[in-house]
Amino acid sequence: MKPPLSPSDYRRLELIDPPRVQLDPWRIKLYSGLKYLGAGCRSLVKWLQSTCWRSPDVEIWQVRDRDGRIWWHGHDPVSGRSIHAVTEAEIRCWLEQRWHLYPGSSRRID
């Protein structure tokens, strides 16, 4: 068992800092450059997904509220128009309007 340390030894040990790692300035620049490059690549992929890889088909989906009613939502990537929380009759009307704006651009679903 080690003998207890004297108060002067405690004070001396408290002043000791762990060695700090110093990075070269070029490494700091490299790390920050890689961080910005990664953010730029993510932005490019998001842009490609939103413009080039998106299907021109109309997206239609339904949600049910807590009372059990069904509400329809739709998005037209060609025009950028959207419709939210409407009845089935309203979504059908919206689709008909789109069909007249862009004839032949949507597939018929039977």
What do you see in this structure?
By secondary structure, the protein is an alpha+beta fold. Among the domains are: 23-54; 59-101. 45% of the residues lie in helices and 17% in strands. A 3-stranded antiparallel beta sheet has the order 1-2-3, covered by helices on one side. It is elongated and about 90 Å long. It starts with 6 loop residues before the first helix and ends in a 9-residue tail after the last helix.
Number of helices: 3
Flag low-confidence runs: none
Instruction: Report how far the terminal alpha carbons are from each other.
Output: 87 Å
Percentage of β-strand residues:
15-25%
| Largest sheet, strands/sense/barrel | 3 strands, antiparallel
Q: Roughly how much helix do the residues carry, as a percent range? A: 40-55%
State the strand order across the main sheet.
1-2-3
Mean pLDDT: 79
User: What's the β-strand tally?
Assistant: 3
Helix-strand category = alpha+beta
Question: Judging from the principal axes of the Cα atoms, what is the shape?
Answer: elongated
- The succession of helices and strands, N to C, reads HHEEEH
User: Nearest-angstrom radius of gyration?
Assistant: 31 Å
Descriptive terms for the model:
110 residues; alpha+beta; three-stranded antiparallel β-sheet; 3 helices; 3 strands; 45% helix; 17% strand
